Amino acid sequence: MLGKKLHIIFIIFILTPFFCQIMPVKAQFSEGTSLDAVYALMTESATKGNYEEISALLPSVSEATNKIKKNFNVDIVSEIRDALVKRDKEKVLSAVNKLIFYDMKNIFFEISQMRKASATPLRMLMKKAYSNYRLLSPEIRSVKSKADDNIKMLFKQLFSFLAVETSPFAVEKRDVIVDADAIHSVTVKIEEECLSVLR
Fold it and tell me: How far apart are the C-alpha atoms of 91 and 161, rounded to whole Å?
Protein backbone atom coordinates (compact mmCIF):
# COMPACT_ATOMS: atom_id res chain seq x y z
CA MET A 1 0.00 0.00 0.00
CA LEU A 2 2.80 2.38 0.96
CA GLY A 3 4.68 1.43 -2.19
CA LYS A 4 1.64 2.28 -4.33
CA LYS A 5 1.29 5.72 -2.68
CA LEU A 6 4.97 6.46 -3.20
CA HIS A 7 4.61 5.45 -6.84
CA ILE A 8 1.68 7.89 -7.33
CA ILE A 9 3.58 10.70 -5.56
CA PHE A 10 6.59 10.04 -7.79
CA ILE A 11 4.46 10.27 -10.97
CA ILE A 12 2.88 13.55 -9.80
CA PHE A 13 6.33 14.94 -8.97
CA ILE A 14 7.62 14.07 -12.45
CA LEU A 15 4.60 15.30 -14.41
CA THR A 16 3.89 18.57 -12.55
CA PRO A 17 6.64 20.60 -14.30
CA PHE A 18 5.43 19.24 -17.65
CA PHE A 19 1.84 20.38 -17.11
CA CYS A 20 3.04 23.76 -15.83
CA GLN A 21 4.89 24.26 -19.11
CA ILE A 22 2.05 23.30 -21.44
CA MET A 23 -0.64 25.23 -19.57
CA PRO A 24 0.99 28.54 -18.49
CA VAL A 25 -1.43 30.73 -20.40
CA LYS A 26 -4.54 28.99 -19.06
CA ALA A 27 -3.30 29.38 -15.51
CA GLN A 28 -2.61 33.10 -15.89
CA PHE A 29 -5.61 34.25 -17.92
CA SER A 30 -9.35 33.99 -17.62
CA GLU A 31 -12.03 35.10 -20.07
CA GLY A 32 -12.31 38.54 -18.52
CA THR A 33 -8.62 39.40 -18.74
CA SER A 34 -8.00 42.83 -20.28
CA LEU A 35 -6.45 43.02 -23.73
CA ASP A 36 -3.49 45.11 -22.53
CA ALA A 37 -2.61 42.35 -20.03
CA VAL A 38 -2.53 39.84 -22.91
CA TYR A 39 -0.38 42.23 -24.95
CA ALA A 40 1.97 42.64 -21.99
CA LEU A 41 2.47 38.87 -21.77
CA MET A 42 2.97 38.62 -25.53
CA THR A 43 5.65 41.33 -25.34
CA GLU A 44 7.36 39.60 -22.42
CA SER A 45 7.18 36.23 -24.19
CA ALA A 46 8.64 37.71 -27.39
CA THR A 47 11.53 39.20 -25.42
CA LYS A 48 12.22 35.87 -23.72
CA GLY A 49 11.72 33.80 -26.87
CA ASN A 50 8.67 31.94 -25.51
CA TYR A 51 7.14 31.49 -28.97
CA GLU A 52 4.68 28.75 -28.00
CA GLU A 53 3.09 31.06 -25.45
CA ILE A 54 2.57 33.78 -28.06
CA SER A 55 0.96 31.27 -30.41
CA ALA A 56 -1.35 30.12 -27.60
CA LEU A 57 -2.38 33.73 -26.91
CA LEU A 58 -3.34 34.62 -30.49
CA PRO A 59 -6.98 33.42 -30.14
CA SER A 60 -7.34 35.82 -27.19
CA VAL A 61 -6.73 38.80 -29.47
CA SER A 62 -8.81 37.59 -32.43
CA GLU A 63 -11.44 40.32 -32.03
CA ALA A 64 -8.75 43.00 -32.22
CA THR A 65 -6.92 41.37 -35.15
CA ASN A 66 -10.19 40.97 -37.08
CA LYS A 67 -10.94 44.68 -36.65
CA ILE A 68 -7.41 45.58 -37.76
CA LYS A 69 -7.77 43.44 -40.88
CA LYS A 70 -11.18 44.94 -41.67
CA ASN A 71 -10.29 48.60 -41.06
CA PHE A 72 -6.68 48.71 -42.30
CA ASN A 73 -6.33 45.59 -44.48
CA VAL A 74 -3.41 44.39 -42.35
CA ASP A 75 -3.18 40.66 -41.64
CA ILE A 76 -1.16 40.90 -38.45
CA VAL A 77 -1.87 37.29 -37.40
CA SER A 78 -0.12 35.96 -40.52
CA GLU A 79 2.85 38.23 -39.82
CA ILE A 80 3.13 36.99 -36.25
CA ARG A 81 2.77 33.33 -37.27
CA ASP A 82 5.40 33.75 -40.01
CA ALA A 83 7.83 35.28 -37.50
CA LEU A 84 7.09 32.46 -35.03
CA VAL A 85 7.79 29.79 -37.64
CA LYS A 86 11.16 31.42 -38.37
CA ARG A 87 11.81 31.70 -34.61
CA ASP A 88 13.30 35.12 -35.24
CA LYS A 89 13.14 37.02 -31.95
CA GLU A 90 13.52 40.46 -33.53
CA LYS A 91 10.77 39.79 -36.09
CA VAL A 92 8.46 38.30 -33.47
CA LEU A 93 8.85 41.32 -31.18
CA SER A 94 8.40 43.66 -34.15
CA ALA A 95 5.19 41.85 -35.17
CA VAL A 96 3.81 41.96 -31.61
CA ASN A 97 4.60 45.70 -31.41
CA LYS A 98 2.84 46.14 -34.75
CA LEU A 99 -0.24 44.40 -33.33
CA ILE A 100 -0.26 46.71 -30.29
CA PHE A 101 0.27 49.79 -32.49
CA TYR A 102 -2.55 48.87 -34.88
CA ASP A 103 -4.90 48.17 -32.00
CA MET A 104 -4.14 51.66 -30.69
CA LYS A 105 -4.68 53.03 -34.21
CA ASN A 106 -8.02 51.20 -34.33
CA ILE A 107 -9.08 52.88 -31.06
CA PHE A 108 -8.24 56.25 -32.63
CA PHE A 109 -10.29 55.20 -35.66
CA GLU A 110 -13.29 54.40 -33.43
CA ILE A 111 -12.97 57.82 -31.82
CA SER A 112 -12.93 59.53 -35.22
CA GLN A 113 -16.18 57.74 -36.11
CA MET A 114 -17.91 59.05 -32.99
CA ARG A 115 -17.89 62.65 -34.22
CA LYS A 116 -19.33 64.82 -31.44
CA ALA A 117 -19.52 62.86 -28.19
CA SER A 118 -19.36 63.48 -24.46
CA ALA A 119 -15.98 63.14 -22.77
CA THR A 120 -16.83 60.00 -20.77
CA PRO A 121 -16.83 57.38 -23.58
CA LEU A 122 -13.92 59.12 -25.29
CA ARG A 123 -11.93 59.11 -22.06
CA MET A 124 -12.43 55.36 -21.66
CA LEU A 125 -11.21 54.71 -25.20
CA MET A 126 -8.24 57.05 -24.73
CA LYS A 127 -7.20 55.19 -21.58
CA LYS A 128 -7.16 51.97 -23.61
CA ALA A 129 -5.06 53.64 -26.28
CA TYR A 130 -2.59 54.92 -23.69
CA SER A 131 -2.36 51.46 -22.09
CA ASN A 132 -1.25 50.19 -25.48
CA TYR A 133 1.28 52.96 -25.86
CA ARG A 134 2.82 52.22 -22.46
CA LEU A 135 3.78 48.79 -23.85
CA LEU A 136 5.39 50.37 -26.91
CA SER A 137 7.13 53.12 -24.95
CA PRO A 138 10.27 51.16 -23.87
CA GLU A 139 11.03 50.13 -27.46
CA ILE A 140 10.44 53.63 -28.82
CA ARG A 141 12.46 55.29 -26.04
CA SER A 142 15.39 52.92 -26.60
CA VAL A 143 15.57 54.00 -30.25
CA LYS A 144 14.43 57.63 -30.11
CA SER A 145 13.77 59.11 -26.68
CA LYS A 146 12.57 62.40 -28.18
CA ALA A 147 9.74 60.56 -29.97
CA ASP A 148 8.66 58.94 -26.72
CA ASP A 149 8.65 62.32 -24.96
CA ASN A 150 6.61 63.85 -27.80
CA ILE A 151 4.04 61.04 -27.78
CA LYS A 152 3.54 61.28 -24.01
CA MET A 153 3.10 65.04 -24.35
CA LEU A 154 0.52 64.49 -27.10
CA PHE A 155 -1.41 62.05 -24.91
CA LYS A 156 -1.45 64.66 -22.15
CA GLN A 157 -2.91 67.07 -24.67
CA LEU A 158 -5.60 64.53 -25.58
CA PHE A 159 -6.57 64.01 -21.96
CA SER A 160 -6.74 67.78 -21.46
CA PHE A 161 -9.37 67.86 -24.22
CA LEU A 162 -11.37 65.36 -22.16
CA ALA A 163 -11.29 67.28 -18.88
CA VAL A 164 -14.51 67.40 -16.89
CA GLU A 165 -16.18 70.78 -16.76
CA THR A 166 -16.77 71.95 -13.21
CA SER A 167 -18.37 74.97 -11.56
CA PRO A 168 -18.20 76.08 -7.91
CA PHE A 169 -22.02 76.36 -8.05
CA ALA A 170 -22.63 73.03 -9.82
CA VAL A 171 -24.15 70.18 -7.86
CA GLU A 172 -22.78 67.62 -10.32
CA LYS A 173 -19.88 67.51 -12.72
CA ARG A 174 -20.85 67.84 -16.36
CA ASP A 175 -19.15 66.21 -19.32
CA VAL A 176 -17.67 68.57 -21.87
CA ILE A 177 -18.98 67.86 -25.35
CA VAL A 178 -15.83 67.09 -27.33
CA ASP A 179 -15.48 67.41 -31.09
CA ALA A 180 -13.67 64.29 -32.33
CA ASP A 181 -12.21 66.33 -35.21
CA ALA A 182 -10.29 68.42 -32.67
CA ILE A 183 -8.69 65.22 -31.38
CA HIS A 184 -7.97 63.71 -34.79
CA SER A 185 -4.94 65.88 -35.63
CA VAL A 186 -3.28 64.89 -32.34
CA THR A 187 -3.90 61.16 -32.83
CA VAL A 188 -2.40 61.40 -36.32
CA LYS A 189 0.75 62.96 -34.83
CA ILE A 190 0.98 60.12 -32.29
CA GLU A 191 0.74 57.55 -35.08
CA GLU A 192 3.41 59.35 -37.13
CA GLU A 193 5.80 59.53 -34.16
CA CYS A 194 5.32 55.80 -33.50
CA LEU A 195 5.90 54.87 -37.13
CA SER A 196 9.10 56.93 -37.21
CA VAL A 197 10.57 54.32 -34.87
CA LEU A 198 8.67 51.03 -35.13
CA ARG A 199 9.87 48.69 -37.84
Answer: 37
Strand pairing of 116-118 and 177-179? antiparallel
Please report the pLDDT score of residue 114 as a whole number.
Answer: 78
- At residue 177, what are phi and psi to the nearest 5 degrees? -80, 120
For the whole model, what pTM was predicted?
A: 0.79
Buried b (16+ CB within 10 A) or exposed e, 157-178: ebeebbeeeeeeeeeeeebeeb
Beta-carbon contacts of 110 under 8 Å, excluding residues fewer than 6 positions away, are 125
Residue 19: per-residue pLDDT:
40
Q: What is the DSSP track for 72-140?
A: H---HHHHHHHHHHHT-HHHHHHHHHHHHHHHHHHHHHHHHHT-EEEHHHHHHHHHHHHHHHHHHHHHH
